[in-house]
Each structure stands twice: as C-alpha cells, then as structure tokens.
Predict the structure.
Amino acid sequence: MAAREVFADTSALYALVDRNDAGHAAARVAVGRLLTSGARLVATDYVLTETINLANARGGALVAHRVLDLFEQSVGIRLEWIGPERFDAAKAFFRRHRDHTYSFTDCTSFTVMRALRLTDALTIDRHFAEAGFKVLLPLA
C-alpha cells in the first residue's frame, strides 16, 4: 500500500521554516503528525518557487535557504513538476473560475491535486476549501 500523500501549500511550508510566523507551531505539529503516521507531503515546483520568494521577501536569505534545505534534505516531501499539460489544465481552470480570487499558483496546485487524487491540503488558504479540498490547518 502506498503512503498517504498530502499536498503542502506555500502558507504551510513558509510557516514551517519561519519560527516567527504565526502559524509556525500549528504547521510543525501538523507535519509531525503526518510524517509520524507515514504520510508524505507533496508540493509543486510552483509552490516551491512561491515559498522561496515569500521567505526571501519576509525573512531574508537565511529563511529562503531553509526552504531549499527542506526540499533537498527531507525524505518526507516530494516535488511534482507542473509541466506543459498541467500548465494548460491550470490555465483552463483559472479561466473557468474567474469568479474566485484564486492565484494562478493555486490553480496549478488544484490541478496537480486532482491529477494525483489528493484530497487533503496542508494550508491556511481558504481557496483550497472553496475548491473542494480538506484543509488541515486553521484557515486564515
């Protein structure tokens, strides 16, 4: 049986590496529980880029490097690449849902989650709940 996979969004990944983030403790507890239960985190190259940029802007290079370290050193997180087909699917999703305030990165995340049949999102972003996914952290 394959390990359970949970999608990790920018908000959770950033909170995990920045000790000053309001969601740091909740993110650490949630990730600890998931990894202890044998679950694996999945994020995309778009989420990684967004998280590094956010970390660099808010916390500086040290925090941005923690994000890279997390992805390079953790066996508990897997990176999925968007690629051309998923990019096109995300564009279509973005256009179909113009009545929402989804970011394009959110749309790429939703596309990957559906392709991988993931239902749970480690995030504080209410957009994941709006898109029909189960949010594992308190919503902002």
Helices lie at 10-17, 24-36, 45-59, 61-73, 83-96, 104-116, 126-130. The mean pLDDT is 94.
